[in-house]
Design goal:
binds magnesium ion; binds nicotinamide-adenine-dinucleotide; alpha/beta; nucleotide binding; 362 residues; metal-binding; two-stranded antiparallel ribbon; globular; seven-stranded mixed sheet
């Protein structure tokens, strides 16, 4: 199935299907005018899946130039941006060529940014291999590397030409990474799609166990939600895209508290953050306690943490609030919190007093 991202002359298709990797070559022929494609990937993904992608491309008459980087968040740095960009130039990649990002969000963000600056912009294609990247980072055109001052602080809005999603790739993903990505799936239901949240309550177990139909439905629904949001607010200027940050202000503070270490994966921080956003909204009378409890129960039922201490983090409200003040989503000295009136009813709230958040967290 195909979901379209409607952005005028920068529109692109997201192709989704079990086993689609085998058809990647046929899909990519129009994006390989020289009959070769550079594929940027990480060592873990390369070991498990690069042979299959290469075979598919070769069968379509496309030669592959692989660029394999180490796995992990630390890869998203200046040194690798330079390395990838210089390699692409040495390979003779031209503006009309596409560069393929084959991996999770780390590879997608870095490769997209490299494509945005290569010869002032060449095309690129996302073939995401983690659940998080299949439902979130591969769609929407945010690209970045990390800087000394913080995560994702250097980058560009730069849309891919195509996204190819094969849920079968998730078979090799560690369960903890799968669950972390699942938190971002739940997020779409919590923002504005109560029916999807209900569907997830019924189908989460099958989805996480690898049921192909459930996976495709969840990924397609997530991509459709993200595509609509991005089409309405590509550059995060009118507040619509900000809703995608539900759970992220709290989550980001928790990640910062752990020094962005493996102790807390991004999606785990988001799970706790969403539970806290509902908890805070309930405590302050914005939404019902029943909805808050229902959200926490669902996240916990799949093994996601819903409280800082269930992830082994004991932070004071004060220290978490201090991290929130560092958040790049601050504007005019005020934090915009994404709060809720209920499940599927998220909104941007600029009236939140940080001291109340501190007190709630304590
Ligand atoms: P990741 O790319 O580091 O992948 C997680 C781990 O899974 C890595 O060790 C990787 O090697 C491994 N892996 C990937 N695919 C695999 C597979 N199929 N089988 C086995 N192992 C596999 O992390 P991620 O969670 O995909 O992405 C996180 C990154 O995405 C962060 O840098 C974050 O800032 C970024 N992000 C970007 C956006 C955006 O809009 N651009 C949105 C959300 C997150
Ligand atoms: Mg996120």
């Amino acid at each position: 199935m195909t979901v379209d991202v409607a952005l005028g002359d920068r529109s692109y298709p997201i192709h989704i299907g079990a086993g689609l990797l085998a058809r990647a070559g046929a899909l990519l022929v129009p994006l390989a005018p020289r009959g070769r494609l550079a594929v940027v990937t990480d060592a873990t993904v390369a070991a498990q899946h690069l042979a299959a992608l290469t075979q598919s491309l070769n069968e379509a008459g496309i030669a592959v130039d692989p660029i394999v980087l180490p796995a992990g968040e630390a890869t998203k740095n200046w040194a690798n941006l330079q390395l990838v960009t210089e390699k692409l130039l040495a390979l003779g990649v031209e503006r009309g060529d596409a560069v393929v990002a084959f991996g999770g969000g780390v590879i997608g963000d870095l490769t997209g940014f490299a494509a945005s600056i290569l010869r002032r912009g060449c095309r690129f294609v996302q073939i995401p291999t983690t659940l998080l990247s299949q439902v979130d980072s591969s769609v929407g055109g945010k690209t970045a590397i990390n800087a000394a001052a913080g995560k994702n602080l250097v980058g560009a809005f730069y849309q891919p030409s195509m996204v190819i999603i094969d849920p079968d790739l998730l078979d090799t993903l560690p369960p903890r990474e799968l669950r972390a990505g699942y938190a971002e799936v739940v997020k779409y239901g919590l923002i504005d799609d109560f029916a999807f949240f209900e569907w997830l309550e019924t189908n989460a177990a099958a989805l996480l166990a690898g049921d192909a139909e459930a996976r495709v439905h969840a990924i397609a629904t997530s991509c459709r939600a993200k595509a609509a949001t991005v089409a309405a607010d590509e550059h995060e200027t009118n507040g619509r895209r900000a809703l995608l940050n539900l759970g992220h202000t709290f989550g980001h503070a928790l990640e910062a508290e752990t020094g962005f270490s493996d102790r807390l994966l991004h999606g785990e921080g988001v799970a706790i953050g969403m539970a806290l956003a509902f908890g805070f909204s309930a405590t302050t009378g914005r939404c019902s306690g029943r909805d808050a409890a229902r959200v926490a129960a669902h996240l916990a039922s799949v093994g996601l943490p819903v409280l800082p201490r269930s992830a082994g983090i004991s932070a004071t409200g004060k220290s978490l609030a201090a991290h929130m003040l560092q958040d790049k989503k601050m504007s005019g000295g005020r934090l915009a919190f994404i709060l809720v009136h209920g499940i599927g009813q998220a909104y941007v709230d600029k009236s939140v007093v940080l001291a109340d958040v501190e007190a709630f967290l304590d």
